[in-house]
Amino acid sequence: MVTVAIAVPSEYGYIIAVLVAIYLQQNLAFVLQVAQQRRLTGIKAPSFYPRDSEIKALKLNTEQVESYIYAQRVHQNNMELMSFFIPVFLIAGLYAPVNVAIAGASIVGFRFLYGFAPRKSVLRRFAALFHFSELYVLYVAGVFAISLVSNNHVA
């Protein structure tokens, strides 16, 4: 087995900056939305989604329930995405830090649009464009993997 030393370029700072933005987006912007909806509706944690009995007991109308569920889904969907995206992002960033950071910033922007565009707005449809940046980051990670493996000579 051949080991590979990885030099972290100074441009990797862009990756870290985008990572901080991802963290703040998830743990401030999206969590605060859920907290605000919980306050407005009376839906208490740990409930992710209110049961019919809870909706009835709190006397919530359809709009209130939909607003809460929308905020909760934005938060949950982002957590689901980031749980596997962040490691790939950090690894791909070692190979092409500037390009991957730009793709990551694009994802933050589109995810922000997804999280804050009105539920039925056409703007929300554009948020799906983050997938192109996501696929680019995955592509870069694949190229990086191939470059590492191709330098690995079997004895």
Automatic annotation (TrEMBL):
Its main location: membrane. Pfam families: MAPEG. SUPFAM superfamilies: MAPEG domain-like. It is a multi-pass membrane protein. Coiled coil: none annotated. InterPro entries: MAPEG, MAPEG-like_dom_sf, Membr-assoc_MAPEG. Keywords: Membrane, Transmembrane, Transmembrane helix. The lineage of its organism: Eukaryota, Fungi, Fungi incertae sedis, Chytridiomycota, Chytridiomycota incertae sedis. The keyword Metal-binding does not apply. The keyword rRNA-binding does not apply. This is MAPEG family protein. The chain crosses the membrane at residues 12-32, 84-114, 126-149. It is found in: Membrane. It comes from Physocladia obscura. It comes from the Eukaryota.
